[in-house]
């Protein structure tokens, strides 16, 4: 267990080196990109100093070596200080904190839809297919394959066409910030969330069905049946519980796709979240902002994987013994 | 006598393999879906209904011509309509196939070579080489792939070249992980251990004795990697960070339709459908391949 935590810390360091190293290769000068070629040199030098590129605010001051800059940045990370955005001239933390509720809300919302609909539908499909409706199983097979393949942005376009244009149930750009109240906020996130969840639901349905079909063929089910345990109890108390372990893995892996999905989906529905912030950062060459966001998201992913691995040990005693 | 046997054997196996392939529903469905796209792409090199880049201001935002009108010589037929500057969408969708396969093929090929080589080194030498390579692979895993591609676009500028490099780097760890896991299994086999005994060159063992045994895994991974390459390219281009303006790609077409699709849905539906078919095709074919090749592996063992 200690080993697993140390290992996560090592991964974190490697990721920071990777991200920082990548941005060192950037050919353009972010300060020049912001100010243009004919900027006031005094101002430019001051700005350079402010963002930590040079040692003093004078014109022609020596550059801070990359290694020093990396360690400064890293110690900043530990103080939860991601630096100051070049484009917005605000601290990255401040920018993130205004946009975080939207992205996190979206992610949690679609994760809940994933879990509830995915598992419920999966159990239903497993039940129906195992009682002999093979055509139904085949149809679900095709539908879920399409659901996995369809890109989030195309799914969202189809949802907009169906729900907003054909049925007129929701407005196209319905996003409301959290300050407008939880109800309108969630209502605005319904479409983005279900767009992200199409792939997740399909994936989870497939996994639940496969796991349950496998478990239903096992010995303990036959034994329970011969003892006269009701079919309902077998399904929910025994089979579902045993098939949940592989499903926890899938739910963990969904996290990365939900983050990627929300980056894309925020663009479709113009939700002011982390994804839109990152794209505007990329378009203006704001390396400090993009670095900050990337490290932030990578940390979330690393921590989730760690929690997931520790969770396994809690759920399944067999893994605990092995480790 | 001996000659006869060798002569007979291949033909029988060939038939049996072919029959097996034809009977595998997953593989056939995926293969057929991809054939549609491949044929469409090949045709687009020689012929498209209209010039995909020609502006035609007299035919802006034409809706798709109804099928009943297709034979009518008086009507300018646009199967999928035209976009906001009068370019024929179907022609552009066809040409975009070239971009998708260009990016997909080059990324998967490069990633395969690099990833597999790394995996062979890692698994065969073990020790610190293995540790270093696998830790790096894991570090990569904690950066979501699209985000990594976006970061590359931020550093090296947008465009097809960056997209290819970014997707290749995303795919390398996948090949490495899949190959390594299988090489580790093969390495324990006796005939590999015997190569050390007779003092065989390590590189020779790696490439001539271990590699052929993990080929099936690599092929399946390649099919799935192709689907991810197409999907990442489309997402990146959709965000405006991938393939840039004059070039057509499915993602870029969707990006261009962003402001208009609520009124002209066909502008988004055609390219979107193509991405879905491509990803679906490679996924399903990958499933089929893993069934086919696994069966082969188990028969040998």
Per-chain topology:
The complex is a heterodimer of chains A (about 325) and B (about 300).
Chain A: H1 2-24, H2 30-35, H3 41-50, H4 66-78, H5 92-130, H6 134-149, H7 152-166, H8 182-216, H9 219-226, H10 231-268, H11 274-283, H12 287-315, H13 317-322
Helix pairs in contact in A: 1-12, 5-6, 5-8, 5-10, 6-8, 7-8, 7-10, 8-10, 10-11, 10-12, 11-12
Chain B: H1 2-23, H2 25-46, H3 89-125, H4 127-141, H5 145-156, H6 160-187, H7 190-197, H8 202-238, H9 250-256, H10 266-300
Number of domains of chain A: 2
According to CATH, what is the topology of the largest domain in chain A?
MetI-like fold
How widely separated are the two ends of chain B? Answer: 28 Å
Q: Please state the second-level CATH architecture of chain B.
A: Orthogonal Bundle
Q: Write down the secondary-structure element order of chain B.
A: HHHHHHHHHH
Shape field of chain A: elongated
Structural class of the helix and strand makeup of chain A?
A: mainly alpha
Largest interface: A-B, 49 and 42 residues
CATH superfamily of the largest domain in chain A: MetI-like
Poorly predicted runs of chain B:
295-301
Query: Could you tell me the mean pLDDT of chain A?
Result: 82
Largest sheet of chain B: none
- Name of the CATH architecture of the largest domain in chain A: Orthogonal Bundle
Using the coordinates above, name the CATH class of the largest domain in chain A: Mainly Alpha
CATH topology name of chain B: MetI-like fold
Would you report the number of β strands of chain A? 0
- Major pleated sheet of chain A: none
């Amino acid at each position: 267990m200690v080993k697993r935590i140390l290992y996560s810390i090592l991964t974190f360091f490697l990721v920071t080196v990777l991200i920082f190293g990548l941005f060192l290769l950037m050919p353009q000068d972010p300060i020049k990109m912001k100010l243009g070629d004919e900027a006031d040199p005094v101002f430019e030098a001051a700005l350079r100093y402010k963002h930590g590129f040079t040692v003093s605010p004078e014109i022609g001051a020596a550059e801070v070596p990359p290694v020093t800059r990396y360690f400064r940045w890293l110690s900043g990370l530990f103080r939860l200080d991601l630096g100051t955005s070049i484009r917005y001239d605000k601290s990255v933390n401040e920018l993130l904190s205004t946009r975080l509720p939207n992205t996190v809300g979206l992610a949690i919302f679609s994760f809940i839809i994933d879990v509830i609909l995915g598992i419920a539908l999966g159990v239903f499909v497993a039940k129906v297919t195992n009682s002999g409706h093979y055509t139904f199983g085949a149809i679900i097979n095709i539908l879920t394959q399409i659901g996995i393949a369809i890109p989030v942005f195309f799914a969202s376009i189809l949802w907009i066409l169906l729900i907003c244009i054909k049925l007129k149930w929701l407005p196209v750009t319905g996003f409301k910030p959290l300050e407008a109240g939880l109800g309108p906020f969630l209502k605005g996130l319904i479409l983005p969330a279900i767009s992200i969840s199409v792939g997740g639901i399909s994936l989870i349905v497939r996994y639940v069905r496969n796991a349950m079909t496998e478990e239903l063929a096992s010995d303990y089910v036959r034994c329970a049946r011969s003892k006269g345990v009701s079919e309902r109890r077998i399904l929910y108390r025994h089979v579902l519980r045993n098939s949940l372990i592989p499903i926890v893995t899938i739910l963990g892996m969904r996290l990365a796709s939900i983050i990627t999905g929300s980056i894309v989906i925020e663009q479709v529905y113009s939700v002011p979240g982390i994804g839109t912030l990152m794209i505007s950062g990329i378009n203006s060459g704001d390396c400090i902002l993009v670095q900050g966001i990337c490290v932030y998201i990578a940390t979330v992913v690393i921590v989730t994987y760690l929690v997931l691995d520790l969770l396994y040990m809690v759920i399944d005693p067999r893994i605990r013994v092995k480790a | 006598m001996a000659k006869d046997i060798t002569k007979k054997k291949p033909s029988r196996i060939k038939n049996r393999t072919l029959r097996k392939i034809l009977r595998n529903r997953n593989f056939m469905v995926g293969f057929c879906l991809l054939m549609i796209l491949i044929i469409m792409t090949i045709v687009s090199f020689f012929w498209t209904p209209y010039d995909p880049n020609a502006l035609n201001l007299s035919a802006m935002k034409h809706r798709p011509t109804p099928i009943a009108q297709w034979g009518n010589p008086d009507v300018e037929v646009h199967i999928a309509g035209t976009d906001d500057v009068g370019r024929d969408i179907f022609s552009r969708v066809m040409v975009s196939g070239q971009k998708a396969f260009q990016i997909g093929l080059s990324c998967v090929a490069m990633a395969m070579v690099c990833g597999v080589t790394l995996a062979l080194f890692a698994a065969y030498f073990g020790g610190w080489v293995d540790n270093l390579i696998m830790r790096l692979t894991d570090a990569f895993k904690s950066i979501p792939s699209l985000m990594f591609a976006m970061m590359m676009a931020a550093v090296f500028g947008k465009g097809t070249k960056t997209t290819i490099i970014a997707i290749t780097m995303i795919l390398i760890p996948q090949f490495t992980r899949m190959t390594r896991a299988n090489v580790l299994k093969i390495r324990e086999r006796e005939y590999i251990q015997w190569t050390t005994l007779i003092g065989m060159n390590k590189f020779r063992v790696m490439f001539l004795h271990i590699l052929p045994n993990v080929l099936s895994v690599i092929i399946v991974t390649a099919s799935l990697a192709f689907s991810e390459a197409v999907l990442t390219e489309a997402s990146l281009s959709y965000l405006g960070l991938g393939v840039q303006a004059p070039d057509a790609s499915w993602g870029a077409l969707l990006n261009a339709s962003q402001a208009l699709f609520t009124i002209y849905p066909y502008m988004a539906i055609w390219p979107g459908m193509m991405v879905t078919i491509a990803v679906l095709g490679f996924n399903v074919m990958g499933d089929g391949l893993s069934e086919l090749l696994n069966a082969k592996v188990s028969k040998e063992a």
